[in-house]
Structure formats: structure tokens, C-alpha cells
Amino acid sequence: MQKTLNQLRTGDKAVVTKVTGSGAIKRRIIDMGLVAGTQIKVQKYAPLGDPMEIKVKNFNLSLRKSEAALIEVQEHS
């Protein structure tokens, strides 16, 4: 089932399938290493739910939920 990154819960693992959006935001997301085939794990959410922290290629990355909504993922265990 196709989901976006902002729909995952703490501890969920997934693989990036597509980065949507356009312009500077899409370029920034890709520059951070979130390209198709990249494995990610949701580490935690801030107390009010935004931003979220994910683990990508052995580093932690914080994203706003609005940015995470542009990243399509395929969940796996």
C-alpha cells in the first residue's frame, strides 16, 4: 500500500518510492538523500507532532510534516 512519509508512526520502516512536489522544496529533499530506493526509519515526532525525525543512511534528519507529505514510501518490516 502506497503511503506518504508523514503517515508513518514512530518505529516504522519504509523505502522511498517517489518524491513529489516541485521547485526548491523537491530539490532540497533530494539533496538530503531522500531518493527512490532509500531506506528510512521513523525515529520520533516532536511533542506537538511537528517536525518528525527519521533515520536515513546512518544520520538523523528532521522534516516538517508538510515536507514529509511530498515523499511517497512503501512500508516494510
Considering the chains and any ligands shown, give keywords for the structure.
17% helix, six-stranded antiparallel beta sheet, 77 residues, SH3 type barrels, globular, alpha+beta
Write up this protein.
The structure is a single chain. With 77 residues, this protein is of the alpha+beta class. It has a single domain, classed as SH3 type barrels. Helix content is 17%, strand content 43%. It has 2 helices and 6 strands. It has a 6-stranded antiparallel sheet with strand order 1-6-2-3-4-5. A hairpin with a 2-residue loop joins strand 4 and strand 5. The model has no long low-confidence stretch (mean pLDDT 92).
Q: What structural class do the secondary elements suggest?
A: alpha+beta
| Named CATH topology | SH3 type barrels
| Shape label | globular
**CATH H level: which superfamily?**
Ferrous iron transport protein A (FeoA)
Please, how many domains? Answer: 1
Q: Give the CATH class.
A: Mainly Beta
- Helix proportion: 10-25%
Task: State the strand order across the main sheet.
Answer: 1-6-2-3-4-5
Tally of individual helices: 2
- The SSE order reads EEHEEEHE
Instruction: Note the main sheet.
Output: 6 strands, antiparallel
Distance between the termini: 13 Å
If you average the pLDDT, what whole number results?
92
CATH architecture: Roll
Low-confidence stretches: none
Number of strand elements: 6
The radius of gyration computed from the alpha-carbon positions, rounded to a whole number of angstroms, is 11 Å
- Portion of residues in beta strands equals 35-45%
- The assembly state of the depicted protein chains is single chain
